[in-house]
Recover the amino acids of this structure.
């Protein structure tokens, strides 16, 4: 992985490809490259370790002409980040050039066979093996490129999204996918290819999402042809993109992350619009109501997710068990898929993924489907793989999230889980009307309370200067705020590279308290809830050992503020929605510490936005 761009049409391809790669920089990468068929039908491949800007610099004096090309940003899987391992890769004859997202798991077996046939390799990648393999099949079977790709992809094991050029056919791009996203934009006498829609929206809002084990044959001046692996033509479904170009710009902010933090009051409004009605005192989540019997008869709910989505899932566990009285288990998707889990037809599996393309979560969905469980998806990206693979679901509708470290998607996921819990609770009659009404009113009030938290920006910015050069952090929370503590710690380690861990506050005395000294900052989420007094006791345990405490407290709290070293006050809310309020100051703290350290907050090292490999 990580980013694919392609173009065929009447315009010069190189500027479009470079701009597309820059649109995909948010996904995280360590090298970039481009392949162009020039006007003399020469196939030129240029690539460079580092950023897209490094690629631009390296090709400044090269021939970048041509109206057809493919480009790639690579997040290293096989082989270290360097020029040789960067995509695109030539075939043995240099007649083909290929880019690839995903992992070919049986590449070593194929490579050994190719070595026996005197193929030479210039990189350590599985991708170079793949392009050699396609050419080998093309030549030994005397077939065209499309058929060679079909045969090759029937032999490989793993995930892929590929695009390939043939020097001998300068009016064609062949593309294919399995378990890794690929979208084609349809313009006027031109086509655009990308791993997601962000490089395309500038040129067209009409797209085709390629499905698993489909091949797209894109010929200049002809309609797109979609085939499956057995060469049967498929009818493509053209969709209209909902995003707009302004959502992909920084809008005057220095980074996408701070823009997206500040967007959260509006994104929550967008998330609940048409679903939460204060006038009718009702929550209507159609994905649940259309399958009401499944939720009424559910014996158990299993939530599968990764990273930030897993933290949202933990909050969902609290909400559903609290309000709906259904047992809930939260699983890391990467472990669930290999654990031989016990599943049955009365189970509901909820899959959460911002991109809707997370490989481990998608594999967990497929495993659950095979067991007959009902699958509910919570995603941000319309038309994504998980959205298509699930039986029902809800979009979080927070708009494109460009910063690699998730912010508005997290609060959007928690909001959808809140609405889901309220909808199920009402249908199962497990919630008193007074509490139901109270929660609806409070959920509708969250966006305004988020605005008040964002007014603390300068206070948090100043506080961040004190802790910029800390080497470790501990985050503590209890109840609903325990997952918020985990998420706060994750944000800090992701973008500032400071080691941080989240714990249930009461667990401090069972080991982690040994770490407490004057050099260990502790962020304690101590907002008012059912176990507020217990949290105070945990803070006092830290202070007794000279720990430095940054406390997140409810406005007007003078008890914790008299104990802690620093306090950040947030508006009062019901504890069910406390993480929606707590998340924002923790996001801001991580952001400003990272900025103070000079880190690349939008593209932190080693991370990718859409993790489409295991």
């Amino acid at each position: 992985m990580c980013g694919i761009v392609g173009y065929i049409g009447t315009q010069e391809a190189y500027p479009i490809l470079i701009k597309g790669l820059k649109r995909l920089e948010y996904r995280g990468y360590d090298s970039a490259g481009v392949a162009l068929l020039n006007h003399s039908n020469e196939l030129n491949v240029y690539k460079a370790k580092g950023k897209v800007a490094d690629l631009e610099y390296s090709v400044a004096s090269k021939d970048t002409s041509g109206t057809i090309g493919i480009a790639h940003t690579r997040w290293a899987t096989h082989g270290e980040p360097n020029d040789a391992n960067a995509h695109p890769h030539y075939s043995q004859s240099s007649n083909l050039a290929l880019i690839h997202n995903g992992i070919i798991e049986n590449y070593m077996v194929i490579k050994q066979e190719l070595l026996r046939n005197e193929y030479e390799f210039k990189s350590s990648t599985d991708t170079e093996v793949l392009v050699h393999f396609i050419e080998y099949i093309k030549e030994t079977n005397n077939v065209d490129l499309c058929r060679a790709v079909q045969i090759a992809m029937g032999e490989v094991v793993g995930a892929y999204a590929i695009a390939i050029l043939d020097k001998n056919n300068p009016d064609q791009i062949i593309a294919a996918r399995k378990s890794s996203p690929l979208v084609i934009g349809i313009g006027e006498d031109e086509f655009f290819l990308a791993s997601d829609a962000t490089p395309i929206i500038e040129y067209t809002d009409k797209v085709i999402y390629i499905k698993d084990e489909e091949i797209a044959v894109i010929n200049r001046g002809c309609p797109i042809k979609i085939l499956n692996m057995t060469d049967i033509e498929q009818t493509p479904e053209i969709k209209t993109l909902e995003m707009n170009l302004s959502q992909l710009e920084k809008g005057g902010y220095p980074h996408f992350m701070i823009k997206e933090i500040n967007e959260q009051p509006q994104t929550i409004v967008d998330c609940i619009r048409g679903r939460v009605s204060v006038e009718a005192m009702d929550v209507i989540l159609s994905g649940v109501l259309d399958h009401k019997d499944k939720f009424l008869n559910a014996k158990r709910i299993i939530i599968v997710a990764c990273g930030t989505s897993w933290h949202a899932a933990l909050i969902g566990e609290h909400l559903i068990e609290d309000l709906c009285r259904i047992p809930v288990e939260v699983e890391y998707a990467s472990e669930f898929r290999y654990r031989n889990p016990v599943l049955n037809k009365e189970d509901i599996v909820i899959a959460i993924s911002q991109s809707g393309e997370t490989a481990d979560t998608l594999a967990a969905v497929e495993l659950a489907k095979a067991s007959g469980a009902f699958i509910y998806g919570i995603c941000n990206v319309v038309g994504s793989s998980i959205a298509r693979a699930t039986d029902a679901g809800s979009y979080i509708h927070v708009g494109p999230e460009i910063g690699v470290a998730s912010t508005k998607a997290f609060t959007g996921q928690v909001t959808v889980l809140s609405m889901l819990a309220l909808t199920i609770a009402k249908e199962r009659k497990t919630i008193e009307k007074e509490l139901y009404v109270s929660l609806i009113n409070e959920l509708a009030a969250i966006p305004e309370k988020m605005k008040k938290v964002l007014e603390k920006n300068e206070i948090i910015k100043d506080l961040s200067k004190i802790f910029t050069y800390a080497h470790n952090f501990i985050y503590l929370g209890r109840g609903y705020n325990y997952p918020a503590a985990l998420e706060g710690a994750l944000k800090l380690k992701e973008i500032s590279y400071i080691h941080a861990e989240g714990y249930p506050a009461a667990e401090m005395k069972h080991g982690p308290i040994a770490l407490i000294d004057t050099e260990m900052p502790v962020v304690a989420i101590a907002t008012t809830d059912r176990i507020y007094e217990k949290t105070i006791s945990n803070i006092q345990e830290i202070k007794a050992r000279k720990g430095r405490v940054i406390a997140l407290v409810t406005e007007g709290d003078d008890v914790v503020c008299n104990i802690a070293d620093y306090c950040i006050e947030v508006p009062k809310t019901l504890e069910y929605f406390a993480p929606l309020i707590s998340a924002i100051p923790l996001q801001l703290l991580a952001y400003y510490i990272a900025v103070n350290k000079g880190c690349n907050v939008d593209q932190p090292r080693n991370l990718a936005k859409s993790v489409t490999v295991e």
